[in-house]
Amino acid sequence: MTFGVKLVFFLQAFCLLTFHTHGQKKEDATAEEVKIEVLHVPKECTPKSKKGDLLNAHYDGYLAGDGSKFYCSRTQNEGHPKWFVLGVGQVIKGLDIAMTNMCPGEKRKVTIPPSLAYGQQGYGSA
């Protein structure tokens, strides 16, 4: 696999379970490195996702350079969306950043630099 490439993800949030938390820290400046293009926002856009929320989402990963698909959540877990807690490292850092402040049903295209994805080794390396 090509090393150190930017990744492009198409995201769709289906369900958002929010939890009240206190004393959350703001995300650092790395959020500026993730490029987010909002493709669809539903008319009802509440609540918006935040760190600690349980999300249910599908996402597809492509290499930004040649557009080849390297991951599809629809082919994992018998096609069911992935459940994860936002902002605690259950997905790559770039997805934690990209899915913050997202509403249920929203669709986004995001471009994530290697430093916030799989690093210089790339996806699937040991």
TrEMBL record:
Keyword set, alphabetical order: Glycoprotein, Isomerase, Repeat, Rotamase, Signal
Enzymatic reactions: [protein]-peptidylproline (omega=180) = [protein]-peptidylproline (omega=0)
Superkingdom in the source lineage: Eukaryota
Enzyme Commission numbers on file: 5.2.1.8
Keyword Lipid metabolism: no
GO molecular function: peptidyl-prolyl cis-trans isomerase activity
Residues covered by the PPIase FKBP-type domain: 52-126
Stretch forming the signal peptide: 1-23
Enzymatic class: isomerase
Entry-linked Pfam families: FKBP_C
InterPro entries: PPIase_dom_sf (IPR046357), PPIase_FKBP (IPR052273), PPIase_FKBP_dom (IPR001179)
SUPFAM superfamilies named among the record's database cross-references: FKBP-like
PANTHER family: PEPTIDYL-PROLYL CIS-TRANS ISOMERASE FKBP7, PEPTIDYL-PROLYL CIS-TRANS ISOMERASE FKBP7/14
Protein's recorded name: peptidylprolyl isomerase
Organism this protein belongs to: Gopherus evgoodei
Lineage: Eukaryota, Metazoa, Chordata, Craniata, Vertebrata
